[in-house]
Design goal:
Layout (H helix, E strand, L loop, with lengths): L26 H13 L7 H8 L3 H13 L3 E3 L6 E3 L1 H32 L2 E8 L2 E8 L14 E3 L4 H7 L4 H8 L15 H14 L2 E4 L6 E9 L5 E10 H7 L1 H18 L27
Antiparallel strand pairs: 1-2, 3-4, 3-8, 4-5, 6-7, 7-8
Helix pairs in contact: 1-2, 1-3, 2-3, 4-9
Length: about 300
């Protein structure tokens, strides 16, 4: 039985053709921001690694990094060494960190309630590029649990929280995030085509919550729902993860309803108008039959 459904070290994929810019977007700006986000983890990274992480050819990444370096956002170590954020880049990163700190503070009591009721690991996740990144976690009290490495990312299409956030993107934004390359399979259950992902995202929009059933790690299932900001835009997701057998015993529908209830309340704390804190079709939504009810 695996001990975690959270991010694990990910093999570097071969360089892929960069995604086309969505209408109204400047492609080079998006690529530069992808590089800054990749460096925001704080560790040194070489040119080839960075290029592969963001889906660029090394020559393109080098030109962008040179420009960012000239503007004081990126620093390259001597002798063609690895790259790190420079002062201006760290200033941007600290601003993002402050926003994440507020998000964690607001979400914390709702995560506590979800963990108390479900007795499973509860995660706070944000979307960064094409990765779902775990920024906070409350661990399961059981001896066998699903533990994520906070601060690391997993391909969004293979994670319940990632799919909850991808479902909030427009078609153009989704194309820009995923790019033209095939989706990488992590397990035999992983989605590997954009058409299969599109069908699942349509289900997420309809019911309001997402699930990955052993798509990231064998034997582990995750259920997730998005958190929305003052404009009703998804900015994060809360997920419950655990061994498939235990989550199936609770009931995925029941977990989904628990998450919908708590994320709607948390979204209102983030400033989301009440009418936008629930799924768009909530008024006409017929909730699926529960296998087992969850109550406090």
């Amino acid at each position: 039985m695996p001990t975690g459904c959270g991010p694990t070290p990910v093999e570097l994929a071969a360089p892929a053709a960069p995604a086309p810019a969505a209408r109204g977007q400047v492609q080079s700006v998006g690529r530069a921001l992808d590089l800054l986000e990749a460096l925001a983890c704080g560790r040194e990274q070489g040119l080839v690694e960075l290029a592969r992480r963001v889906g660029l050819q090394p020559s393109t990444a080098h030109r962008l990094l040179s420009t960012l370096g000239a503007r004081g956002y990126v620093h390259q170590q001597p002798n063609h060494g690895p790259y790190v954020l420079a002062d201006r880049g760290r200033d941007l990163s600290s601003h993002v960190d402050r926003r994440t700190m507020r998000l964690r503070a607001v979400a914390w009591p709702f995560m506590q309630r979800i963990r108390k009721i479900s007795r499973e690991t509860t995660n706070l996740v944000v979307l960064r590029g094409c990765d779902a990144v775990y920024v906070d976690q409350l661990k399961c009290p059981e001896s066998v649990s699903a533990i994520a490495d906070v601060g690391r990312g997993v391909p969004a299409h293979a994670a319940g929280a990632g799919k909850a956030l991808l479902a909030g993107l427009s078609e153009q934004e989704l194309d820009a995030v995923l790019g033209p390359q095939p989706l990488r399979g992590l397990t035999p259950q992983s989605l590997t085509t954009t058409s299969a992902l599109a069908r699942q995202l349509a289900d997420v929009r309809r019911r309001g919550w997402a699930v990955d059933e052993e798509e990231h790690a064998a034997g582990v299932t995750c259920v997730a729902a998005p958190l929305r900001d003052f404009a009703g835009v998804p900015v994060a997701a809360i997920s419950v993860s655990g061994p498939t057998a235990r989550l199936s015993g609770i009931g995925l529908d029941a977990l989904g309803e628990l998450l919908l209830d708590q994320t709607a309340a948390c979204s209102r704390e983030l400033g989301c108008p009440p009418e936008q804190s629930a799924p768009p079709a909530a008024s006409a939504w017929m909730r699926p039959r529960r296998r087992q009810s969850i109550s406090s």
